[in-house]
Design brief:
Elements (H helix, E strand, L loop, with lengths): L14 H21 L24 E4 L5 E3 L2 E3 L1 H15 L5 E6 L5 H13 L3 E4 L4
Length: 132
């Protein structure tokens, strides 16, 4: 009796094809991550090269939890704040105006970002301060 042997299928797989796929994915993600630019705020951090300290107190923009703005303690609307900052920037001359941004604790981030965007739009240095 001539019985035929059946060909058994091997359950092994080749690791070389898996490493090729991983290598291609690595290249793909490296290329795409370098093309994506982050959408973030540019923050100018203090450095060691700024030894001079100004004696003049910069204008202070307070931000309440409700979204109301205070300029040196006086309640102002967003448009009034924008006009006042433009006037202060013109009166400041060639030097860039410094403004402190003082949100109350637990103020929504949206209100703080609104003021930081305004400062960036008007070419004003926004200095974020916090409570201790």
């Amino acid at each position: 009796m001539g019985l035929k042997k059946r060909n058994k299928v091997s359950a092994e797989f080749s690791m070389s094809s898996l490493t090729d796929i991983i290598f291609l994915l690595l290249i793909f993600f490296m290329l795409t991550s370098s093309l994506v630019s982050p959408n973030a705020l540019f923050l100018k951090l203090p450095g060691k090269n700024n030894p001079t300290v100004s004696n003049v107190n910069p204008p202070d923009i307070g931000i309440q939890r409700s979204g109301t703005f205070l300029l040196d303690g006086k309640r102002v609307s967003y448009n009034q704040l924008q006009d006042q900052l433009r006037k202060l920037q013109r009166n400041n001359g060639r030097k860039k105006l410094d403004v402190t941004i003082s949100p109350v604790r637990n103020t929504p981030v949206e209100h703080v970002v609104t003021i930081m965007d305004l400062a960036q739009k008007l070419n004003v240095n926004g200095i974020l301060t916090t409570d201790n």
